[in-house]
Amino acid sequence: MKDYTEDRNLSDIKLLAVDMDLTLLASDGSLPPRMAERIDALGEAGVLFCPASGRPAPTLQMMFPEHADGIAFCADNGGWVIYQGRAAFRDLIRPELWHEVLDFSAADGRCAPVLCAFDRAYVLERDRPYHEDIYKYYKDIRYVRSFDEVDDEADKVTIFFPNYDAEPRFASVYEPRFGKRLYATNAGREWIDFMNLGVSKGSGVAHLCRQLGIDLRDAAAVGDTYNDIPMLSAVGHSFVVANAEKHMHAHADYLVPSNNDRGVAVLIDAILAAKGFEPVGL
């Protein structure tokens, strides 16, 4: 796989969309050093920074407090896109469809289904033991005895698998059952996400680029796993971190250092240098 330094057109990049877990974030969950400074430098160089994640927008905004109202966020795997503090795109799953997924997964018994309703998440009372795992991503959790109690708008269903067996369950059960009606994807080894067909990180970035008049050929993305594939396929500059599984190499053009080696920060510095700006440095 080609090294990121072989991309001779880094100076053309106008938008940088970056996955969070195991891509931008180190394995301990920390951001690269001087990240706020890097985002400022990208802005001065004419590059919009866009975290792209399965996380909801409020959680993402909390992670970038200095820039919550200045950058873009591709949240809920593209179901909710925010630019400069305002919604640029929102998608809704039909209630009868999300009820079907939730009821089926609740009956599975080996997982904890979560309804993602933009600012809040709904979880069954029986799954309260997984609170810390879910709270990592959803700060406003409403516990209910049954999903029949919920009357809310939602853009995503996510299912937590505490035994880290989401990948085989996705392949053998969930994708065959729901894949023709919803876009289903693994988000790591412990989550399966469901959005409407056509909704993905790739579509979210495309919506944002259209609204801002940015050619997708001048957009870049960095990822590490399955739910990043549509985003990597959509943009003109695609990168995976060195810690990504080997199968991901087929979905990107270039390789950057691992998340623990701060590959995204290294790439940002390379983009800044290509545009004639001083790299921030680690």
Automatic annotation (TrEMBL):
The keyword Hydrolase applies. Pfam families: Hydrolase_3 (PF08282). PANTHER family: 5-AMINO-6-(5-PHOSPHO-D-RIBITYLAMINO)URACIL PHOSPHATASE YBJI-RELATED, PHOSPHOSERINE PHOSPHATASE. GO terms for molecular function: hydrolase activity. It is an enzyme of class 3 (hydrolase). InterPro entries: HAD-like_sf (IPR036412), HAD-SF_hydro_IIB (IPR006379), HAD_sf (IPR023214). This is HAD family hydrolase. Keywords: Hydrolase. Its EC number is 3.1.3.-. The keyword Hydrolase applies.
